[in-house]
UniProtKB/TrEMBL annotation:
Residues 3-64, 69-132, 145-207 form the S1 motif domain. PANTHER family: CONSERVED VIRULENCE FACTOR B (PTHR37296). SMART domains: S1. One of its GO terms (molecular function) is nucleic acid binding. The lineage of its organism: Bacteria, Pseudomonadati, Pseudomonadota, Gammaproteobacteria, Vibrionales. Belongs to the CvfB family. It comes from Vibrio maritimus. It comes from the Bacteria. Pfam families: S1_2, WHD_CvfB. InterPro entries: CvfB_fam, CvfB_S1_st, CvfB_WH, NA-bd_OB-fold, S1_domain, WH-like_DNA-bd_sf. This is S1 motif domain-containing protein.
């Protein structure tokens, strides 16, 4: 089955002066122009191509990789505005992605970089974008567990912190006290459920919370010490940047973890760093 707006693997069935025709099943022969065809392609080969509608509403193929396919979010730059809506660069050279005015949460301006969700409009069949994410999210109850690892997409920044899309299904919030490293709109990363409030809203953390956080980090410290011959040039005096680079955690959490390992007699803390104690 051919999926419009997605990458498909199609068979080359015919050659023409201007390109190759691919087996599009119910859509018939789909053109892949020569400038997009892989080098050395031949009849019978199967090629990975992105399928979309061109300006003439014809189904065509390209080897360009879109920033986001149908059903995905992507960070895109607005290239122009007309009477229909805004057009964003989604990685396909021959055609920008339309974001109708009715799908804009606040008017977009040329040159602005925005997070966009790509979908197929049921009425017209066209591939379009939207910035109205509320209609896509929180349609089902959030049934996550505390410290459950989830996929996050940073969607907005506000005075409260960063709003993130959780597993492509729910809104969540990362408050400033839980921010580790650099966050920006469009960044994808792993995170953890901190809590689900009584009103259903989700608080997020970029590391495990509570005792689980400490235990997880302690294991990582011991594991890295073993790999590095029993020594790491990090201590409670190290910079937050150096600690984050090594363990993706805050300095405060790192200090508590090495303090716990020190009390357990598993490490010693010296001026040059931490040392693994032999059992």
């Amino acid at each position: 089955m051919i999926n419009i707006g997605r990458t498909n693997q199609l068979e080359v069935i015919k050659e023409a002066d201007f390109g190759w025709f691919l087996d599009g099943e119910d859509y018939g022969s789909i053109l892949l122009s020569k400038k997009h065809a892989p080098e050395g392609v031949a009849i019978g080969d199967k090629v990975d191509v992105f399928i979309y509608f061109d300006a003439d509403n014809q189904v065509v193929a390209t080897t360009d990789t879109p920033i986001a396919q149908v059903g995905e979010w992507g960070l895109m730059k607005v290239e122009g505005i007309n009477s229909v809506g805004a057009f964003a660069n989604w990685g396909i050279k021959e055609k920008d992605l339309l974001i109708p005015f009715s799908e804009q949460r606040g008017r977009l301006s040329e040159g602005k970089t925005i997070l966009v969700y790509v979908y197929t409009d049921k009425a017209s069949g066209r591939i379009v974008g939207t910035t109205k994410f509320n209609k896509l999210l929180d349609k089902t109850p959030a049934r996550y567990q505390r410290n459950e690892q989830v996929d996050l997409l940073i969607a907005e920044r506000s005075d409260l912190g960063y709003k993130a899309i959780v597993n492509g299904q729910h809104w969540g919030m990362i408050f400033p006290s839980d921010v580790i490293g650099k966050l920006f709109v469009g960044k994808k990363l792993k995170g953890f459920i901190k809590q689900i409030r009584e009103d259903g809203k989700i608080d997020l953390s970029l590391q495990k919370v509570g005792v689980a956080k400490m235990d997880d980090l302690s294991e990582k410290i011991l594991s890295l010490l073993e790999k590095k011959g029993g020594f790491l040039p990090l201590s409670d005096k190290s910079t937050p940047e150096a600690i984050f680079a090594a363990f993706k955690t805050s300095k405060g959490t790192f200090k508590k973890s090495i303090g716990g390992l020190y009390k357990q007699g598993k490490i010693s803390i010296e001026k040059d760093g931490i040392h693994l104690k032999s059992e």
